[in-house]
Write a structure and sequence with these properties.
Elements: H1 4-20, E1 24-30, E2 35-40, H2 47-65, H3 88-96, H4 98-104, H5 109-112
Antiparallel strand pairs: 1-2
Helix pairs in contact: 1-2
């Protein structure tokens, strides 16, 4: 769970780690059980490598900084979408309003729906 007490530091750290991996984190936002990261990843960085680095480093950092009070563990896997340059502003605004969208039930299925089973797993 992403507790309110760790949220600001988690988002700050994800932005900083993105910059270290030569990626531009444009927006980070989420709810207690998931987050969205709008990121521009250059061709020399793999998506899987970026996600692995950010998930691993951020959970380690949060668990160290908060000394076990708010332990953070990421779920296995992730969902990624490619968007056009024209959609960046819309997606950014959506991410900034994650809590509002989820509280009101006004979520965008195109941005929220993720098949929890990995494609290589039998159903």
């Amino acid at each position: 769970m992403i507790a309110p007490a760790i949220e600001r530091e988690l988002y700050r750290y994800i932005r900083a780690k993105g910059a270290q991996t030569r990626c531009r984190v444009l927006e980070v936002g989420g709810t207690a059980d998931h987050l969205h990261v709008l990121v521009s990843i250059p061709p020399v960085v793999s998506l899987a490598g970026f996600v692995k680095t950010v998930k691993g480093a951020s959970s380690h950092h949060i668990n160290e900084v908060f000394s076990g009070h708010h332990l953070l563990y990421w779920q296995v896997g992730y969902d990624a979408r490619s968007i056009s340059a024209d959609a960046v502003g819309q997606v950014r605004r959506y991410i900034q309003s994650q809590k509002v969208h989820h509280a009101s039930g006004d979520v965008d299925a195109r941005l929220e729906t993720a098949d929890r089973a990995r494609p290589d797993q039998a159903r």
